[in-house]
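Re: your question about histidine kinase

S., sorry for the slow reply, the queue was backed up all week. Below is exactly what I fed in.
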Amino acid sequence: MELNSIHSFFHQAYMPHGHCYLWQPHLLWINVISDLLIATSYFSIPIAIMIFAKQRPEVGRHWLFILFSSFILLCGITHLIGIYTVWHGAYGIHGISKALTASVSMVTAVYLFRLIPSAVAIPTPNQFFGVKDKLSKLTSEQKQLKSLLSEHKTTEFMLNSLPVCTLLLDKSNNIIKCNPQLLNELGYKNATPMLGTSLSEHIQLDDPFCKLSTVLQESKQKKSKPIEQLCQIISENGVAIPMEMRLVTSSFEGQQFTLVVFNNLSSFKQLKQELDASHQRIERAINATEDGVWEWDIKNDNVIYSPTLMKMIGKEHLKNPTYLDWYEHIHPEYREIVENAIKEHFNTQEKLQVEYLGRNYENKFAWFLAVGNSQFDKDGSACIMSGALRYIQSNKQLESQVVEKTNILNSLFNGTSQAIWLLKVEPEADFTFLQFNQAACERVNISPKDIIHKRLSELNENVISPFIVQKIKSNYSLCCERKQPIEYVEMLPNNNEKRWYQTTLYPLLDKYNNVEKIVGTAIDITARKFTEKELEQNRAFLEQVINSAVCGLYLYDLNKKRNIRINQRYSAILGYNINDLRGLNMFELIHPDDEAKMSVHLQDILNSQNQDLLAIEYRIKHKSGGWVCCNAVETVVTRTEDNTPTVLLGTFVDINNN
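Result:
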């Protein structure tokens, strides 16, 4: 090892410090343990300083705390290295730690001496707490002042926000304060034009016998008691605004002030005018209506009747009518009914509505309707009752006529042998039976409860077969589609018997021109159908007999001068069918030599009596061109009302062979 070199400075081959203690345990360990405890204490002190600095952030970053912490920390490190040198000769490292400690210690000492004037200026605890007490008192006073200022501002805001006009007068009755609401009402932009002026310059009392000075003097005499007056206050543009004025005089800090409060009555006056106009309109409406209006103060037994009501009961001459004046006009037999209705109204609190007979303006008994309602107190007792009285004599007569006609219609509806029913058209091509009379029920052998208020689609097989339902549904739908009456003949079975009906459907249209209901009627024509069938059978039989006859047969129209009906034998003899004869005059077919004879014959027919048979022989042209000699017998079968023949029946045979 080279002495006095860097290597020798950090070399640890020197004699350990323990040799100085001769390695005596009691000397060695007392020094080691003491250095260890000192280092531990030195390390804890910076920690305490750091904790203090963290809890006092306003002083925690001060350089004094940093220097002290560094100095004490280096002291602790130096003691730890001193323990290390007991067993190892690392005196270079030990020296470096001491040098660092010395440097930081010197800087700390210099800095501390520089802080002595500031430290001396720090107040003592007594001084600090004295200043603190003064500061606390000042803070408390400041809070009280702020609170009073806040209350003052709140009070001023509240007064300025009130929807009333206020001003403050001094003892000379001059204006010293006024709120924004008053300025706004009077049209002033600020209070300058009003401040310092006398109240009398702005106010005019409504009472001509009262002076403002007297009112102000009275207010000062009656301290804290409000004085009220109606007045008019002059706005900036000279308009007088109706106001209600209240004055209260009071003392504040030895000075007398008068507070004046104004309430704008413009809206109230306008409302009063509107109420008066509304009252007049209501009064005109009451007088114009045919109903009489009344009000009854039940507790005080006072009544108010409209002129119309008094005229209705024939007592318009009474000036101060009472409840008995109305009660006495009621027919004696109906007074108990009316009384019971009123009692029932009081008990149930439901609307009063009672019809009765009473004397009218002609002093004759007629029908009246009394309608009314009451106001009840918290105990449920009626206080005020008001309503209307209506003259319903004509309504009663009309109602009686309607009932009579309704009974007649019901009798016709249920008593007629004609089936009648009423349908309501439903969505999706369905129909509801609203009415179904007895005849209709008998026609289809069904009970009214099984079909009334039932839809067509709801009828099961036990009521009407699906085939019949579909058939009548198509007819109802056709009526809705055409929107006009339709008539048809249908067959509906009844107890396994075929019954024929002539049915007519009448559509009822709504305001949109859509069918909403259908009235149906049906007449049983089964007998007529059987008669028609028999007639058809007889006609067919007669036709067969006529066509089977050995002679030709024809019907001759005397006006048209041609045959209008022939049998098959006629066609067989002459070769013509009925279509061939429609365009021919019979005289065109008669032989020229027989025309005169035929004319005489026709004249004889015209002069003949009923059922006279007239015979004639003549020649008639065959369709093929030849002549057929006929022996004919003719008679008149149709005559007019004046007995003039129109149609004759003729038979003939071919006598060419004869």
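Residues 6-117 form one domain. The longest helix spans residues 125-161.

Happy to talk it through on Thursday.
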